[in-house]
């Protein structure tokens, strides 16, 4: 009797393994629309592929890397997953991400806008497909600019400083420049000025570029904005979302952020009179925006790579991409999507796309997250007034150099 | 086997071992096995996905001990633990004594004091994070309304305001559990003792000093030990409010551990740190229990 049960269980387990068309996909939760969107795509894919069974797992951004780490070390990694492209180097070095070139033909490649596919290519192989892309530009509040008697957004950082002063003078509750000083991307908010002053995150000799004149000047600029009262008070308490909230309330004159703020404003503050402009230039005309892509990767341990690829192919068709890009307020990564009227007629997006030639991506370095954290900590000390820009950045640079040497 | 004879299936000397064995096996599975795994990872070179690449001896331990953030977090963990455990006793004891009195509406009062316990700590911390928002927080508008503040304070922008507030939140969420233990203790003290003391002319303060405090000692000790274990490793309050920032200035060991392991991917050092924390907590508790039992032996 008992052996009969065992045999039945064994058969069950075997058939379970045999129907290996199960495809596990981990996706990051960009907004409340992400989960339903991927569920719909999965169901549509299953209709076309008989026997395919796609399981979508939606994970919040904050814990995505932790979850993948745990899954990989426990040997239960999914077949496909969205990751931040800046993490990709670790996945490739450890042989966890599978190269996709054997599946890609020229027609598939040409679906993408070149600049967004590039960050996922390492040592000549493509390890990920850009699922989401964004760049940064400056949002400004037209009503506040009018009230302060200014004719338009500043074109350089020194103009920005004057404009921020003028707007801050409008009232106690109003700040000219919204400065992010807390949580994820605190460092990025600094790079906007750093790049404008001609800085490079990693110098040609492979060391950190923070301890250069560009770094000191950019940090001093932000410090001066804070001491002049041209930013919101207590910047180290403000994450990007907090500053965006102030902007939506009409209490901040300018801030630099990603295109998705337009979607949020349309939903939460439709009456706000705002515009989007380029990030101001430095004294020598340098300008830089931060380009970010997230990639969807295939794991080396994927059960059935062909089905996984079919799903990727399906996901990157124009119809699917257009819906996703519009839902989330990202920049189009597919050529055809970019040419659709919904995107070409969007004035906000046009500003972002115009900045793409100046876009810089996070350097492809193992340990980038830690370098970002060291930079953010140094900046917070400067913003709090605990340390002078030079001292803080020199210390951060020597810590970063120790990581870069490895 | 004949009834009435003292005897058992196992020989006498092995009986205690046989009785302890099931519990030991369970503890070994739940505690010892992960600790052994951690021990293995902590002396290895590990990649960021937890795959072991080689043996490095005590290098990971040396790296942790040499990190200035480790020492700063260690000191802060001390302040954090003593502040919350002490604060919870200081607040919890009077509350427990009041709730032990017979008064109209005591049932409702007890429920209200216990309620925060039913809410997840993470939720409590997130609500406080909103309340402490510099521009739109309830705390600022409340304090301004009362005339305590003239200008808004961005509570979470610097450690000098953020960390004390985090400790206060910690006390708030620790009080219900502490009160529960202390109420149990109070109800175990016989009323006869107080009655006798009153007949002898003892004041309320004298009854408290000479009867309540000595008899409550074992319960206070339980509260201290359990709260210390819990607070020392408490993650959600600090993570949900400041994530240990700005510039690591509100990190305690457990938030620092999380950053090491899951943000920076240095799993070897993170394992070493978590074993150090385990050893430290164990040593502290052994010391505390030893002090208590010596105190009791002296009496």
Automatic annotation (TrEMBL), chain A:
Swiss-Prot/TrEMBL keywords: Signal, Sugar transport, Transport
InterPro entries linked: SBP, SBP_1_CS
- Which residue ranges does UniProt annotate as crossing the membrane? none
> What GO terms in the biological process aspect are recorded for it?
maltodextrin transmembrane transport; maltose transport; transmembrane transport
Keyword Calcium appears in the UniProt entry:
no
Xref: Pfam families? SBP_bac_1
| Signal sequence, start to end | 1-20
Q: Return the PANTHER family for the record.
A: MALTOSE-BINDING PERIPLASMIC PROTEIN (PTHR30061), MALTOSE_MALTODEXTRIN-BINDING PERIPLASMIC PROTEIN (PTHR30061:SF50)
UniProt similarity note: Belongs to the bacterial solute-binding protein 1 family.
Q: Name it.
A: Multiple sugar transport system substrate-binding protein
> From what organism does this protein derive?
Palleronia aestuarii
Automatic annotation (TrEMBL), chain B:
List the SUPFAM superfamilies: MetI-like
Q: What's a BP term from Gene Ontology annotated to this protein?
A: transmembrane transport
Q: Where are the transmembrane segments?
A: 12-36, 78-99, 111-131, 167-189, 219-239, 270-291
* Record-level GO cellular component terms: plasma membrane
Q: How does it sit in the membrane?
A: Multi-pass membrane protein
Q: Which PANTHER family match?
A: BLR7065 PROTEIN, SPERMIDINE_PUTRESCINE TRANSPORT SYSTEM PERMEASE PROTEIN
- According to UniProt, the name of this protein is Multiple sugar transport system permease protein
Species for this entry: Palleronia aestuarii
